[in-house]
Specification:
This protein is mainly alpha-helical. It is built from five helices and no strands. The longest helix is centred in the first third of the chain and has 37 residues.
């Protein structure tokens, strides 16, 4: 199998796992959003922010322990800090779409709120996928590259070093 196709297969698996965790996170997000809106008098965007925060916590566990379990685990504090930073940016993107629809266009029926919450999640998901895989859950060096480098070093060490003539 060509290295290119195995890299593509890894990316497809990663996207599928990211999508599974993210899909469950969307259900958590929308469920909490509608629950908070139903049982409280909070404004729509505040209810959405609460739901997004709950979904962020849910997603971190899924991403760290399933989607990206094979990624570098050193520096968990840095990883969590970056995750929270990029999640906060995603929160602003997601809820910015809802805010614009609700307060900019006056689309604030329960159906409209759910539609624009979902659209906001979709836009923010694109950003989150890129940022999480690029900055948060960093890939370990490729096994092939490590094996190639090790074999090169081994070959160099087995070659005879030039003998020095002592006068």
């Amino acid at each position: 199998m060509e290295p290119r196709s195995s890299g593509l297969q890894r990316l497809v698996r990663e996207v599928a796992k990211f999508g599974a965790v993210g899909g469950a996170g969307v259900l958590v997000n929308l469920g909490v959003f509608n629950l908070v809106r139903h049982v409280s008098d909070l404004p729509v965007v505040r209810a959405s922010i609460i739901a997004t925060v709950v979904a962020i916590a849910f997603n971190y566990v899924g991403f760290r322990y399933w989607t990206y379990r094979d990624r570098d685990k050193s520096g968990r504090t840095k990883e969590l800090t970056l995750f929270l930073l990029f999640s906060a940016i995603g929160l602003v993107i997601e809820n910015g779409v809802l805010y614009l629809a609700t307060y900019g266009f006056g689309w604030d029926s329960p159906l409209q709120s759910n539609v624009f919450k979902f659209v906001g999640i979709g836009v923010a998901t694109l950003f989150r996928f890129w940022s999480y895989r690029s900055w948060v859950f960093r890939a370990l060096p490729a096994r092939e590259a490590v094996a190639s480098a090790e074999s090169l070093l081994e070959q160099e060490s087995t070659q005879q070093a030039p003998t020095q003539r002592v006068p």
